[in-house]
Amino acid sequence: MKTWLYAIYWRGGYKSTGEEETWAKRVQPIFLRDQGLKPHHNFLDIGCGYLRGTLELVDYLEEGRFFGIDVSSSNIRRAKERVSRQCNNRPNLIAGSLLGISRFWPTVKFDFVLAASVFTHLWPAEIEGCLQQVERVLNENGKFFATVFKDNTVSKYDGWCGSCINHTLETHPSPKSVTRRRNYLFLNFCYNTLWISEVAKKCKLEVREIGPTEIGQFMLEIKRTD
Predict the structure, then answer these.
(1) Is residue 206 part of a domain?
(2) How far apart are CA 166 and CA 83, in angstroms?
(3) With left for phi above 0 and alpha for psi between -120 and 50, is residue 36 left, alpha or beta?
(4) Which tens digits make up the pLDDT trace of 46-91?
(5) Residue 56's domain spans which residues?
(6) From residue 42, how far is each of 24, 31, 60, 63, 182 by CA, in Å?
(7) Based on the structure, what is the number of domains in the chain?
(8) Which of 128, 58, 47 is CA-nearest to residue 95?
(9) Per-residue pLDDT tens over the stretch 95-131
(10) Contact criterion met (CB below 8 Å) for 226 and 204
(11) Which of 49, 143, 175, 204 has the most CB atoms at less than 10 Å from its CB?
(12) Domain for residue 164, yes or no?
């Protein structure tokens, strides 16, 4: 699928429930601060949506340190509206493809990059392109955190089976199940993390698996190779 088709698919913006909103607005800022995010760091939120997970960081970071990109112009418009009402600082927000990060901000290097629930909706070529972009814009000691539905029983990727984090062929739907096909059509993918590691190596990056998240995805830490 061509990248521009994602803009059509997500043109209405992300929809979430009140419970998801309450949970998301706290867990990502807490996690990132625990990992060392400081107010003076440059932070990039890939697939930032309407900032439902990172709005709190806009004022935590120094002015001009928050950057966000999302393929949905509707999400970016909503994000700007939320910021104008709730924040003192103004983030750098762009509606565009994640494959254009180094073009949008050619002189900026990032200390922390987050892609929460982004790889779960990307085809393999887009994941490789994203890693290439991150390698270009990541500071020497920078960290990139990405979440995936992990299923290392597939060769590369497949439709999300509904339980990919603990997936085994004996206890969960097969790759040809109705659930897999439905999620494939709706751009919900699981990935073999070993494949992601191999792709990262080609981009001079290394992957460390941190562990499962509260919503059934798997957190990856990606850094430059030594």
Answers:
(1) yes
(2) 38
(3) left
(4) 999 999 899 999 999 999 999 999 999 999 999 999 999 999 999 9
(5) 4-149+195-224
(6) 21, 16, 12, 10, 38
(7) 1
(8) 47
(9) 999 999 999 999 999 999 999 999 999 999 999 999 9
(10) no
(11) 49
(12) no
